[in-house]
From TrEMBL:
One of its GO terms (cellular component) is cytosol. Residues 135-199 form the S1 motif domain. It comes from Halanaerobium congolense. Transmembrane segments: none annotated. Gene3D superfamilies: 3.30.300.20, Nucleic acid-binding proteins (2.40.50.140), NusA, N-terminal domain (3.30.1480.10). Monomer. Binds directly to the core enzyme of the DNA-dependent RNA polymerase and to nascent RNA. It is found in: Cytoplasm. Residues 387-406 have a biased composition (Acidic residues). This is Transcription termination/antitermination protein NusA. The keyword Transcription regulation applies. Belongs to the NusA family. GO terms for molecular function: DNA-binding transcription factor activity; RNA binding. SUPFAM superfamilies: Nucleic acid-binding proteins, Prokaryotic type KH domain (KH-domain type II), Transcription factor NusA, N-terminal domain.
Length: 418
């Protein structure tokens, strides 16, 4: 090696951020293996590289002992004193054994080590760079297809889009730029492995964050997302400001914001609903666009029993149960949908109705008592009346009978009304 090589190490340190000392240490370790392999040495050796001149020297390291048993790692005290009289038993003696042609081997080995370290450093940089982008949105170019996998060109590296993360029915073409969600970044022997997705719910969330300024500003929050990629999704949103409509903000003027997201997701249908802390209201909102009459929450079993009008049942369930299924994913509740005609309505004001019924019963009993008394009075008046056989008396009796009949009819009508 020479001064040019040392200068190259300085340049690598500046450009790649790899410490020169780390590189020299790695080269020295590699040269030890190269020396033993090429020269068949079994000695315990140390390689020293001058950081200033680039000169390489090989030293055999041996321990000073009284009686030598292993010539490769031990030296007698007598021989050690010939080198330097200061050596004692237990000291380590270093003897230079640099081969004449070792410079060429050293240069070749050093080059291999440096190249390997550069590759490792670049992999580390890429890993760190994309590790920070986990759960984030990135844009890449479709580079090639491998079996059913799609390899995405990210510039300095590739990302993997496996079949399980591809939208069914979506067409992919080489050279096409697409937005992707970073699911996971891990290390392998071949470098960083970047797993990306087109089906993850996080992709929908990140796309709306780009299109809706209110989300970026923190005025609107995406609380939950449920997706069946390529077909339909539901997203629950809330607002920290009473004046800001979270659903309207995400839909945008004339639906422009939501449409921009739809176009990037293979025309996937998106339902945007309002989040609510009350599970009954939230479940009802989640079944949009179906109309909901009532929701009964069973907290112990985490079940929401939903009642909808008969004509809305199919809409609430959705095609192949999709609407109900997505509502369940979005809310975290098992949704049981029933039509109105099948449900016995249980009023919430049952106690009030019971009180009214009790009052009505008492009124009816009071009426029956009064009715009985009136009938008795009528009978007394009838028996006490003198029925004159002549015409005038007969007419008077008929008037009295009609009057009694009218009174009885009024009482009967009042009774029916009660």
């Amino acid at each position: 090696m020479n001064l040019e090589f040392i200068q190259a190490l300085d340049d690598i340190e500046k450009d790649k951020g790899i410490s020169k000392d780390v590189l020299l240490e790695a080269i020295e370790t590699a040269l030890v293996s190269a020396y033993k392999k090429d020269f068949g040495s079994k000695d315990n050796v140390r390689i020293e590289i001058s950081a200033e001149a680039g000169e390489v020297k090989v030293y055999s390291r041996k321990e000073v002992v009284e009686d030598v048993e292993n010539k490769n790692s031990e030296i007698s005290l007598t021989e050690a004193e010939r080198i330097d009289s200061k050596y004692k038993i237990g000291d380590i003696v270093e003897i230079e054994v640099t081969p004449a042609k070792f410079g060429r081997i050293a240069a070749q080995t050093a080059k291999q080590v440096v190249m390997q370290r550069i590759r490792e450093a670049e992999r580390d940089v890429i890993f760190d760079q994309y590790k920070e982008k986990e759960d984030e949105l990135i844009t890449g170019t479709i580079q090639r297809f491998h079996n059913d996998n799609i390899l995405i060109d990210m510039g300095k590296t590739e990302a993997l889009l496996p079949p399980s993360e591809q939208i069914a029915g979506e067409k992919y073409e080489i050279g096409e730029r697409i937005k992707l969600y970073v699911v996971e970044v891990s290390t392998t022997n071949k470098g960083p492995r970047i797993l990306v997705s087109r089906t993850h719910p996080g992709l929908l969330k990140r796309l709306f964050e780009i299109e809706v300024p209110e989300i970026f500003q923190g005025l609107v929050e995406i609380k939950a997302v449920a997706r069946e990629a390529g077909q339909r999704s539901k997203m629950a949103v809330s607002s920290s400001e009473s004046k800001v409509d979270p659903v309207g903000a995400c839909v945008g003027p004339k639906g422009m914001r939501v449409q921009a997201v739809v176009e990037q997701l293979n025309n996937e249908k998106i339902d945007i609903v309002k989040w609510d802390d009350d599970p009954e209201i939230f479940v009802a909102n989640a079944l949009n666009p179906a109309e909901v009459i009532g929701v009964d929450i069973n907290k112990s079993d985490k079940i929401a029993e939903v009642v909808v009008p008969d004509f809305q049942l199919s809409l609430a369930i959705g095609k192949e149960g999709q609407n109900a299924r997505l509502a369940a994913k979005l809310t975290g509740w098992k949704v049981d949908i029933k039509k109105e005609s099948e449900v016995e309505v249980k009023p919430d004001n049952i106690e009030e109705i019971k009180a009214d019924a009790s009052e009505l019963t008492a009124s009816l009993e009071d009426f029956e008592e009064k009715e009985s008394k009136v009938e008795t009075d009528i009978e007394k008046e009838a028996s006490a009346a003198e029925l004159d056989p002549d015409a005038d008396a007969e007419e008077a009796n008929e008037d009295l009978i009609d009057e009694i009949s009218d009174e009885v009819e009024k009482l009967e009508k009042s009774k029916d009304e009660l």
